[in-house]
Amino acid sequence: MKFHDFIQDGNGWGLLEDTELWANPFAAVHAVKVQTPTRPQGAIWTVLHRKGACVVAPITREGNVVLVRQERIPIRATIWEFPAGQIDANHDHTPDVVCAAALRELREESGYELSPEGRLIPLGLFFPSAGITDEHCHLFAARPVIPSPHGSSHDAQEAITECREFTEAEFRTMIANGEIRDANTLSAFARMCAMNIM
What we know:
By secondary structure, the chain is α+β, with helices and mostly antiparallel strands. It contains three helices and ten strands; from the N terminus they run E-E-E-E-E-E-E-H-E-E-E-H-H.
């Protein structure tokens, strides 16, 4: 597994050494030495390479937000969040591939789909933890969404225990109270607010 194609050397950046320490189909840990603009001799770092992902903020015709409640093993908690998942094509992040992945995750995780007149609105991408990983998430708002006649189809690795609609006021209160605390959902909410979509 390598750095994503949009992460390029240049302008004082350069990969000097790269050793893969561990890998599986989903992630790889590398020990790297990277020249930076302020450290031309190179900085030694541990980098977790991960596939890119999509995060979808589903909004109904009534303006309700759809959230899934999912078990998250690293934090030993079940939390409310927007549907999200990795993009299968590791390096092919063309708009069509990314949008298809977003719509797939929306239906699989929540059991909702974009209505025939709906729009998948790109909100840009963000890095959830740039100090350790090159993982990046493409953010979308899906509006309006409707229940899919096919229902949900959770991945075998997932434990989604519930899916519910929340009013915008309830959603904002959940954020303010710290009930919603994952980076994906908070970042999508921030982008929607900044772009006047919420």
